[in-house]
User: Which sequence fits this backbone?
């Protein structure tokens, strides 16, 4: 009878270590790609919100009192008494329990109603 060939303990340890290294590398890369995706989403959402604020100002001749007014108010033109679209200025992306719009990093968007500026509350992205 021939000897049965099997893996040694050392071979199993080496293979396990290699698997953990590959998994760690993939996890690191995946978190990097996820962060880049969230940054891109943040830029797009900020641009959309800022355009909605400006469009609201043009239609209503005033700035919205808060961001939820953009979500709740229908897009109308009171001077012509006609509805332009049957939609709101923006649709909510993510909303917390208090009703504030959240950015992709789950922090509040900050809106100043006296000048119409919108920015993120996320550390590192406040100046966007």
Assistant:
């Amino acid at each position: 009878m021939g000897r049965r060939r099997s893996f040694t303990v050392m071979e199993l340890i080496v293979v396990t270590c290699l698997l953990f290294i590959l998994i760690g590398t993939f996890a690191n890369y995946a978190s990097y790609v996820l962060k880049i995706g969230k940054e891109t989403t943040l830029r797009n959402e900020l641009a959309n919100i800022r355009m909605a604020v400006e469009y609201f100002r043009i239609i209503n001749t005033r700035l919205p009192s808060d961001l939820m007014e953009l979500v709740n108010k229908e897009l109308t033109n009171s001077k012509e008494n006609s509805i332009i679209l049957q939609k709101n200025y923006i649709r909510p992306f993510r909303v917390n329990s208090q009703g504030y719009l959240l950015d992709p990093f789950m922090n509040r968007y900050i809106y100043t109603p006296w000048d119409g500026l919108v920015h993120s509350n996320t550390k590192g992205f406040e100046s966007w």
User: Anything to note?
Assistant: The helical segments are 9-60, 67-72.
